[in-house]
Amino acid sequence: MATLNVKNFPDALYKKLRAQAKRERRSVAQEVTKLLTGALASPKQLSILDLKGLGKEHWRKLDAAEHVAKERASWD
Fold this sequence. Notes:
mainly alpha
């Protein structure tokens, strides 16, 4: 496993990181790994069909990507 050393890491940021790690019952290294894993993960693809509440029924029968493309084309 690789080792990461960070030079000139701000003291105030390290204190926040250490406090968060303590709250989560992790070591600072574990907390850094968790934060970096989340920050570098591929974003979850969102779908208009996942909407909650008003409008969901409207989109169920439509191709959302096609609808958005038509809307954008109408702006020109």
